Amino acid sequence: MADLSINICGITSPNPFWLASGPPSNSGEQVMRAFDMGWGGAVWKTVGNPIVNVSSRLGAVGYAGSPVMGLNNIELITDRPLEVNFKEIYEVKKRYPDNAVVVSLMVESKDEWKDIIRRSEDTGADGLELNFGCPHGMCERGMGSAVGQEPDVLREITSWAREFATTPVIAKLTPNVTNILDPGIAAVEGGADAISLINTLKSIIGVDLKNLVIQPTVGIEGTQGGYCGPAVKPVALHMAGTLARDERITVPISGIGGISNWYDAAEFLALGSTSVQVCTAVMHYGYRIVEGMIDGLNNYLDEMGMKSVNDLIGRAVSTYVEWGDLDLNFGVNAKINSKTCIGCQLCYIACLDGGHQCIHTHQGPCSAFHGKADHGINPRTSIMPPVMHTDKNKSEAHIPFVDDDECIGCNLCQLVCPVPECVTMEEVPTAAGKESWNERLAKGLS
Ligand SMILES: Cc1cc2nc3c(=O)[nH]c(=O)nc-3n(C[C@H](O)[C@H](O)[C@H](O)COP(=O)(O)O)c2cc1C
Ligand code: SF4
Ligand code: SF4
After folding, report:
1. For a 10 Å CB count at each end of the chain, is N or C smaller?
2. Beta strand residue intervals within 35-77, DSSP E
3. What distances in angstroms separate CA 348 from CA 18, 40, 108, 260, 341, one per listed residue?
4. pLDDT tens per residue, range 82-135
């Protein structure tokens, strides 16, 4: 079994899995239960001058059987008294000295930052996270993403925190910016010891078409909220990776956004995150998902021959290059395995209408494509793949094949094929060596 313990800017944790600041880290009783289940650390629900929350406050979009592909919330920071939060943080840290306990903070004036940092550190917490990310409510009061979107302000508030704090300071960034490097660099310049990202994406989750009001609905109105959950993982990976590969970001990263299992977590770690934080997946499935995360990461590290999670951290960062540095001479072609193909024609239709028109069948255009198939499902209108052929009735005529000369290797057919590994992408050998667009430009070619 590999060593999962981490040290991020001096904060140690038995594993990289932390609760992100939010409902799952709202109280001592919850955080202690989470630690008992295996979570390595927790960033406490943001404390500041307690506010009043609204009801309702969550909305979701589902996809392909999951009711929560993306979650949207209009919840603000803690609505519990500060002294109650601090007392519970003290209790948690005392009872769980080996787990990482970080206090998330959001206040306005310099004096308030000084005061809340002192009170937070009096609890014995391991570090502080500055919430520069909340994209609703608090930003209208000049806090949260209002700070995260102004690098100068972010730099200054971070420097106040660094001046007042004796424990590590983590700046939590908003994704609601054009270039994540601007606030990232400002955080480093302000003295942050680490950066965490992402907070939620500004969004409207939907419209209730019966009552014609946006969701989540408060009475007869709604407001924009923050989007998170599995749907935002690609955005979060991009932003975390962008910081990780930039030499001006000299501090470690805590990755957040859409992490639901060990695989998601390992992706963030490989792309440069030292710890990962989870909110939506815990809200959906409960604390116990961490058991699978620990087992899964352990098995993966064993399979990869890695003795420690530190061997994984940052391993994929150097593969993230600019488009202009990619090899223009590299090529792949799709190959269809006729033994496992069920003849559903989804690849055929995808390539015909959205690819390069290079998948064919021996019988010419498939009857299913014209909506005349005897299985009664028109693949043009159904997102469920029709299972046309069993082994018994599979007809060679329905098995599509790829015209190698035409295939541009876009991957689309592989992505839509419902049969695992039925479509593979195979490298097309070429005598030409690697050459990128930037190399061509440097040679005066285009
Ligand atoms: C209901 C809700 C409340 C949240 N409250 C906070 C908060 O108080 N402070 C904070 O920094 N982030 C807060 N977040 C954002 C999460 O910490 C996290 O950055 C975001 O949800 C992305 O992670 P996820 O995809 O795992 O949910 C909240 C998220 C949700 C869904
Ligand atoms: S990789 Fe793209 S172009 Fe090639 S067969 Fe598949 S869908 Fe068509
Ligand atoms: S999508 Fe896959 S299973 Fe369906 S016809 Fe194409 S290769 Fe066969």
Report:
1. C
2. 41-47, 58-63, 66-73
3. 44, 47, 58, 33, 12
4. 999 999 999 999 999 999 999 999 999 999 999 999 999 999 999 999 999 888
**221 DSSP β-pair partners:** 218
Q: Starting from the CA of residue 354, give the closest ligand.
A: 2
Just list the catalytic residues: 134
Give the pair of three-digit tokens for residue 176.
Answer: 């609601």
**Residue range 349-381, pLDDT digits in tens:** 999 999 999 999 876 544 444 444 434 444 444
73 forms beta bridges with 58, 226
CATH 3.30.70.20 spans which residues of the chain?
A: 325-427
What are the tens digits of pLDDT across the range 213-229? 999 999 999 999 999 99
Ligand 3 is surrounded, with C-beta below 6 A, by: 336, 341-347, 400, 417, 419, 422-423
Contact status, residue 25 vs residue 31, Cβ threshold 8 Å: yes
In short, whether 355's Cβ falls inside 6 Å of ligand 2 is yes
Per CATH, the number for 325-427 is 3.30.70.20
| 115, 52, 94, 193: CA torsion to nearest 10 | -50
First to last CA, the chain: 51
Q: Quick one: how far is CA 344 from the chain centroid?
A: 32
Q: Which fold has domain 6-319?
A: TIM Barrel (3.20.20)
Instruction: Decide: residue 446, CB within 10 A, 0-12 exposed, 13-18 middle, 19+ buried.
Output: exposed
Judged by DSSP in three states, 309 sits in helix
User: Start-end ranges of CATH 3.20.20.70 in the chain?
Assistant: 6-319
CA gap 279, 188 in Å, rounded: 25
d(CA 369, CA 78): 55
- Bridge-based pairing state of the strands 221-222 and 217-218: antiparallel
**Ligand 2 center from residue 372 Cα (angstroms):** 24
Q: Which two tokens stand for residue 363?
A: 């019988």
- Count the alpha carbons within 13 Å of 204 in the hemisphere toward its beta carbon: 11
pTM above 0.90, yes or no: yes
Q: Given the DSSP bridges, would you call strands 273-278 and 17-19 parallel, antiparallel or unpaired?
A: parallel
Distance from residue 419's CA to the centre of ligand 2 (Å) = 16
393 confidence band (pLDDT: 50, 70, 90)? low
Contact between residue 368 and residue 405 where contact means Cβ atoms under 8 Å apart? no
